[in-house]
Amino acid sequence: MKKLALVVLSLIATAAGLPAHAAAVVPVGNTSAEQPPIPGASSRRTQATNTTFQAKYRKIYGLLKSDAVLRGKIKGAAAAYGIEPIHIVGAIVGEHTYNVDAYDRLQTYYVKAISYLSSQLTFAYNGEDVSKFVQRPEFADCASRSGSYELWECRERVWNRSFRGKTVDGTSFPNDRFGATFFQPYYAGQTFGLGQLNPLTALQMSDLVHKVSGLPKLDVKDPNQVYKTIMDPDLTLAYVAATLKKAIDTYKNIAGFDISQNPGLTATLYNVGDPEARAYALRAENERRRTAGETQKLPEENYYGWLVNDKLPELEALF
Fold first, then answer.
1. Closest by alpha carbon to 200, among 127, 245, 266, 134?
2. pTM value surpassing 0.85
């Protein structure tokens, strides 16, 4: 199947002159014969807990296989956002294989969700709350953005351009992601829940989830509710589905690739984030290649998405 997918991908890559509205369907399968390198941080985190990637994969797979209620929730969330359940499964499996280990029971996530309502959380850096930080003049152009995704995506771009790794008004800001700097009050890099969502991602998806699922909009001034939402499986799956749907639509509309048939690619984007910037970069690269008469570049899976595609027969058997 993988060899067939690579052949089809090759045919897509050599196609030329597609209409502006057409999107090339990227079929199932990995573009790389071998898994891309796994980041050292993921390896160190796994070794520190005296486990292995294979053991972590078997654990999350076991939870999915044994819990029919969870599988039903995944199917429901996928249907609401017009995607296949395998995309949600791929994101969950990838996160719990390479990020944190899964809990043994779904009920544990509900217990954790309730605990965050009584925690004293803040979204801040060096004592400055993010709700105040984004009132700085550098963010003025973002005020006109009408949706939560557009608003927070704009603010993230401003962070990268004007603050990341720089000293502004006497404050030195780290050379790190906006989400890691302001939205992880326990320690940098921390994500939570079944989908291991970053709070910034949840805030971006708030309007879409409100529209599709009818859930209350998230407020950056209420970090406890944001974390409770991330931890509660009945709430977070909608955000996972929305994030994946956004990535699929973004690559289709901007980069000209329909990745809805390739769970490894959607899992990759779920892992690395910022699908819009990546889609624009891919489009620019392919415009350069077309001008030069070169073969276009296809979306590529990373180590995380590669695992999802490699395990696809086993994961699809869950449904």
1. 134
2. yes
